[in-house]
Amino acid sequence: SSNVVVAIDGYSSCGKSTLAKALAKKLHFIYVDSGAMYRAVTLYFLRNNVDLKDEEAILAALKDVHLNFHSRDYNSHILLNDEEVSDEIRLMPVSENVSAVAALKSVRHEMVKQQQRMGASKNIVMDGRDIGTAVFPNAQVKVFMTADPKVRAERRFKELSPANPDLTLEDVFENLAHRDYADTTRAESPLTRAADAIILDNTNLTPEQQLDFALEKLKPFL
Ligand code: C5P
């Protein structure tokens, strides 16, 4: 097919979605936040006390989870069974459990299937952990993002703390470290750089510089 796929992977809170949204907006591509999908599934599992060791319960729950995106303004509002959950999925209960849910084979199988369908014939930017390795191994452009862990924790803390006065920088730092560890060491498509992914360390880069970098890499395909 002739559609263009941009895969953006990397560690937690590296600015993947900021870059992905800016690219999608600039190029009029569809943006999909694959992490939001794992987060919404996690929210459903928490609300319904799904036992992560019970394979049948997991499969039954997955059948009851219907995810949709409102792609207004590329903000990627996500609907879980028609309920807007975009804010709730960013809170600590979900952040603390999402990597365990995302490690489950049946969960990944279902999410990857839905993600591949979304990008089957459309120009798309998708960010996550396994987009360039498992979801779209043939993506034209793959970016692997990284940044200093302290800088990442500070950025995320600034985003979350206004609405969460009890949250500490340490909580955020610990959560990022925990998720990076879980995501890189799991058995099912762990976070790893695809051999053909370009590394982008954005510790000292502005969002504009990152956008320019990605646009330059995309030039041959536009
Ligand atoms: O991107 P975000 O940080 O919101 O993702 C939340 C979690 O979802 C990650 O820490 C990871 O465990 C999981 N995830 C994944 N594969 C993806 C996207 C996210 O396993 N493609």
Automatic annotation (TrEMBL):
Major subcellular site: cytoplasm
BP GO annotations: nucleobase-containing small molecule interconversion; pyrimidine nucleotide metabolic process
Compartments where located: Cytoplasm
GO cellular component: cytosol
Alphabetized Pfam families for the sequence: Cytidylate_kin (PF02224)
Keyword tags: ATP-binding, Cytoplasm, Kinase, Nucleotide-binding, Transferase
Stated name of the protein: Cytidylate kinase
Gene source species: Mucilaginibacter ginkgonis
Gene: cmk
